[in-house]
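Morning!

This is the sequence you dropped in the shared folder:
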Amino acid sequence: MDKACCMDADIAVTVREVTWQSHGGDIRRLRREVFVLEQQVPEEEEWDEDDAVSRYVVAVDGRERVLGTGRLAPQGKIGRLAVQRDWRGCGIGTALLQTLLTMAAAQGYRRVFLHAQCRALDFYARQGFTAAGPEFDEAGITHRKMTLTLPPQPR
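The structure's back. Tokens below.
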């Protein structure tokens, strides 16, 4: 980890659940930065009907700056996982994903899925996801569906 953000003990990052209503502005800003500007996803394809009804997590620093985000849509789809460029490689994506998986299990999902950008397949595979089906284009980026069966929750 050669990034200063990863090694600075004074910077604590916390992942927590938030709502679209409370943090929509910060979530929009980060997703626009990562997906629309950096990855050239067309603006009209970034925003969808799941935005208002999904459960969200954010990673924030000690000054409450949103460094990463992700969502769990009602159909069990994990998506819109984004981390600010300067904070990638610091474990934030893993922490966001693990929090979303914990939320999904607590909500009773037995299986979750996502559409992984092909360059991120290894990241999701390390978290236990399995690729399913052929590659496909989504917003001009090659993706592949991945699934994960969640462990049974104690009653």
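Headline: The beta strands are 14-18, 55-60, 66-72, 77-83, 111-117, 130-138, 141-149.

More detail when I'm at my desk.
O.
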